[in-house]
Design goal:
Largest sheet: 9 strands, mixed
Strand order of the largest sheet: 1-2-5-6-4-3-15-13-14
Strand content: 15-25%
Helix content: 25-40%
Number of domains: 1
Mean pLDDT: 90
CATH architecture: 4-Layer Sandwich
Number of helices: 8
CATH topology: Deoxyribonuclease I, Chain A
Structural class: alpha+beta
Distance between the termini: 55 Å
Shape: globular
Length: 312
C-alpha cells in the first residue's frame, strides 16, 4: 500500500508539531521555515576547550551510525550537511540546541544556545559575554571540477578556475558579503562541505598535481578560488595551519570509497578568525579506515568528518 503525497505532508507536519508541543523548552520558527529548538537547556560554557565538528553524514546514513560518531566525539558544536529530517532527531536524542529544516541540507547543532541569523549563519552563545559567529555551508557539488579534470573535460588550470567560479562563485561571494558586514569582534568559525579543493593542496608534487600532469610534463596545479577568497579575508584553514605540508599530510576527506577512478581530495573544512580569543589546539579526521585519525567501524558516510578543538 502506498500513501499519497498529501498524507505524507500531513504526517510530516504532525511530527514537527509533536516535537514542538512535547518539548517544554523554547522554540521558534523563522520566516524561512527553519526551526530553532532549545534542547540544550540554555547551557553556559564553563570549560577551557571547545570542539567543532563538520560532518556530511550522507543522506542514506542511519541514525545509529551518526549516533556512534557523536557518542565517540561529543562535539560542542556541529555543522551538519545532508541533515534533512535526521538532524532534528539527532538533536533531540543528544540534547543539542538545533537550527535547521527537514527540507534543507545544512543544520547547526550546539550544546549552547543558538541565535539564528539566516540559514547558514548563527551566533552560538557560550555565556553572557562571549559568543561565536558560526557558519555552516554546503556548496554545489556539480559539476565537480576534479572529476572533469580526470575525464579530460577540463584540460588547463585556468579552465578549472573558471568552472569552479561558475559553479560556486555566486554563493561564495554572498557569504563573503555577509561575513564582511559583521561588525562585532567575536570569533568566527566557518565549516562545511565546500565541494572544492584548496589551493593549499594542489601544489607541486602533490598527488593530484602529478596524476593529472599534462602532455608537456607540467603538473596540474590549480589555484582554487574559494580557499583563496577566504584566506584573503584572514580566515585560517585549521587543518593546514596545524599540518602545513600537503605532501606529508594530504588530509583527504573525499572520499571514503576507494574505487579505482576516485579522485581523493580535501573538501570538508574548518576555518576560523579571532586568534585573540580562540586558538587552535587540535584537529582530527573521522572515518572508517586508516586514512582517518579516529576509526569508526560503522561509519557509513562517503565523507570523512573533521573535528577541530579550540582553546579559549
Amino acid at each position: 500500500m502506498t500513501l499519497s503525497k498529501l498524507t505524507f505532508k500531513i504526517i510530516n507536519i504532525c511530527i514537527i508539531f509533536l516535537f514542538l508541543t512535547s518539548c517544554d523548552k523554547g522554540h521558534e520558527i523563522s520566516d524561512s521555515g527553519y526551526l530553532n529548538l532549545s534542547f540544550c537547556s540554555n547551557n553556559e560554557y564553563a570549560g577551557e576547550y571547545i570542539s567543532v565538528l563538520t560532518f556530511n553524514r550522507l543522506n542514506e546514513t542511519s541514525i545509529n551510525s551518526v549516533s556512534e560518531v557523536l557518542e565517540k566525539l561529543s562535539p560542542d558544536i556541529i555543522g551538519l550537511q545532508e541533515s534533512y529530517d535526521l538532524g532534528l532527531q539527532i538533536a533531540d536524542r543528544f540534547g543539542y540546541c538545533f537550527y535547521g529544516s527537514k527540507d534543507a541540507s545544512t543544520s547547526i547543532l550546539s550544546k549552547y544556545p543558538i541565535e539564528d541569523i539566516n540559514e547558514s549563519y548563527c551566533k552560538i552563545h557560550l555565556n553572557d559575554s562571549l559568543y561565536i559567529n558560526f557558519f555552516n555551508i554546503h556548496l554545489p557539488a556539480y559539476p565537480y571540477q576534479p572529476y572533469d579534470i580526470r575525464d579530460t573535460l577540463i584540460t588547463t588550470p585556468n579552465q578549472a578556475l573558471h568552472q569552479a567560479e561558475q559553479t560556486r562563485g555566486t554563493q561564495v561571494n554572498l557569504l563573503l558579503e555577509l561575513i564582511n558586514s559583521i561588525e562585532n569582534n567575536m570569533p568566527m568559525i566557518l565549516v562545511g562541505d565546500f565541494n572544492e579543493p584548496s589551493h593549499l593542496d594542489w601544489v607541486m608534487g602533490s598527488e593530484n598535481a602529478q596524476s593529472f600532469q599534462d602532455n608537456n610534463a607540467n603538473q596540474f596545479i590549480v589555484d582554487w578560488p574559494t580557499s583563496n577568497k577566504l584566506l584573503n579575508i584572514n580566515f585560517i584553514d585549521v587543518y593546514r595551519a596545524l599540518f602545513p605540508d600537503p605532501l606529508l599530510f594530504p588530509g583527504y576527506t573525499w572520499s571514503t570509497m576507494n574505487t579505482l577512478q576516485e579522485v581523493h581530495d580535501r573538501i570538508d573544512f574548518v576555518y576560523y578568525q579571532g586568534k585573540d580569543i580562540i586558538n587552535l589546539h587540535s584537529i582530527v579526521l573521522i572515518g572508517p579506515d586508516s586514512s582517518s585519525d579516529v576509526i569508526m567501524d560503522n561509519y557509513q558516510s562517503d565523507h570523512r568528518s573533521v573535528l577541530a578543538t579550540f582553546k579559549l
